[in-house]
Task: inverse folding
């Protein structure tokens, strides 16, 4: 049985294709259309997916009638329906939060877990708790709109001049540069309990009343991050108490907050966050929901295939010579973070490299970068006793003076660990760099310009090299 999962008419449309539990393909619409956060699937994406098989079923990631009802209640027309279809292929829709839950649980290594989904809003749900036992998923708790972790965070993202539903990750990075104590009291009043909020944040923050300076933006971001972490801690402890489970599956857009995610290791024994926990991951979640059993999760490299061998020597030679290289090879990552196949890699020992890479990417100079470290060295360079193959946790760096370009102002790093099985080519490149320098770490960031999708295919490589006079290793 081949199932095509679809997520569209929301930020970051995607499709996934599974066959008898094997994930054959999963890709983002924006990387084909070249439109950041594209809401709709496109012919190029569908054509690429269907190279791996013709679907017997289509699975859609949310309930159209419920979505239309909520839009109508908000004052919209309610005239909403999915766009993509294949005539003659049966189609089934699943609840938005259920698709998130299935994406997480059915890709996880667990047969017994609590599943927490936190986002801005699905059809009506904003926070849900599920129990996964064997192949069954059951709802245990729900919180509906307008009380929402995601809307709280997005509203303050907008308040400080960033784009809601797109640039929350920038505000998370800004938090390291701010003094959370300046605005903690005011912001805590907006979100005093995990199930209580001052008002509907979908309409933004409408009563701040103070002029916001550039430094205020960083201080507000820091306070929002602290309040979010405190409410998340309360909610997760409630979820554990409610279900009695020691394994956590965490999904929804809120699961992309790597700084907060680290705190969850104080509550649960084991944690699984699928590397695409936001809405784009729900195309796979819908397919998994229809399949109804665990999938064969092997790798996040599920998108467009450039082919080729990983250019290990070219990467290391380039970094040792110039400090920075770009690499595009093999299959594209499924998820918002580049994990070595569509990456800019750089020497973490040079403190000036961070600014150089930010200039290449046309980003704000304060923006931090992630280290990718050989898994066997992770605990010696970072304060962690768990692996982080998908850049999902922020931890204290133990040797910040040696790798200053990947350490935040507060001494932490958003770490990616890599082993031989996960991405053998990337591991070999870091190992070669380690043998030359004694440092088993590289700077890793996405191969794109701010506001543009990750590079995807051969034309993207050609256009990049022409525009920026920057050769890509491949």
Result:
């Amino acid at each position: 049985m081949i199932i095509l999962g679809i997520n569209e008419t929301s930020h970051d449309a995607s499709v996934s294709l599974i066959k008898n539990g094997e994930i054959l393909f999963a890709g983002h619409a924006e990387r084909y259309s070249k439109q950041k956060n594209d809401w709709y699937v496109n012919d190029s994406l569908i054509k690429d997916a269907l190279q791996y098989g013709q679907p017997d079923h289509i699975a859609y990631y949310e309930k159209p009638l419920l979505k239309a009802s909520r839009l109508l209640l908000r004052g919209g027309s309610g005239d909403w329906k999915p766009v993509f279809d294949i005539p003659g292929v049966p189609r089934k829709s699943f609840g938005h939060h259920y698709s998130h839950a299935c994406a997480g649980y059915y890709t996880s290594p667990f047969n017994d877990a609590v599943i927490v989904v936190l986002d801005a809003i699905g059809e009506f749900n904003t926070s849900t708790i599920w129990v996964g036992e064997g192949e069954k998923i059951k709802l245990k708790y729900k919180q509906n709109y307008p009380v929402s972790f995601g809307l709280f965070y997005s509203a303050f993202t907008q308040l400080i001049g960033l784009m809601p539903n797109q640039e929350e990750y920038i505000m998370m990075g800004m938090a390291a540069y701010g003094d959370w104590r300046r605005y903690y009291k005011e912001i805590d009043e907006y979100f005093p309990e995990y199930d209580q909020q001052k008002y509907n944040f979908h309409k933004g923050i409408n009563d701040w009343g103070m002029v916001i300076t550039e430094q205020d933006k960083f201080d507000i971001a820091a306070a929002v991050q602290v309040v979010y972490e405190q409410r998340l801690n309360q909610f997760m402890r409630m979820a554990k108490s409610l279900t009695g489970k020691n394994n956590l599956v965490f999904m929804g857009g809120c699961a992309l907050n790597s700084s907060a995610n680290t705190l969850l290791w104080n509550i649960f024994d084991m944690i699984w966050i699928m590397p695409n926990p936001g809405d784009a991951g729900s195309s796979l979640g819908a397919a998994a929901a229809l399949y109804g059993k665990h999938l064969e999760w092997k790798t996040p490299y599920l998108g467009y295939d450039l082919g080729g061998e990983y250019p290990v020597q070219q990467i290391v030679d380039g970094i040792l010579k110039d400090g920075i290289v770009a690499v595009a090879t093999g299959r594209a990552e499924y998820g918002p973070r580049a994990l070595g196949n569509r990456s800019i890699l750089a020497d973490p020992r040079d403190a000036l490299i961070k600014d150089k890479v930010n200039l290449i990417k046309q980003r704000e100079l304060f923006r931090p970068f992630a280290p990718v470290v050989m898994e066997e060295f992770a605990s010696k360079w970072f304060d962690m006793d768990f692996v982080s193959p998908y850049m999902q946790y922020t931890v204290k760096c133990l040797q910040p003076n040696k790798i200053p370009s990947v350490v935040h102002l507060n001494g932490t790093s958003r770490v990616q660990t890599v082993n031989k099985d996960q991405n053998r080519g990337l591991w070999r490149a870091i190992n070669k760099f380690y043998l030359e320098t004694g440092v088993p770490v590289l700077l890793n960031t996405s191969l794109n310009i701010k506001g543009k999708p990750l590079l995807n295919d051969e034309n993207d490589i050609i256009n990049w090299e022409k525009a920026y006079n920057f050769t890509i290793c491949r």
Notes: The two ends are 35 Å apart (CA to CA). Residues 307 and 330 are 4 Å apart (CA to CA).
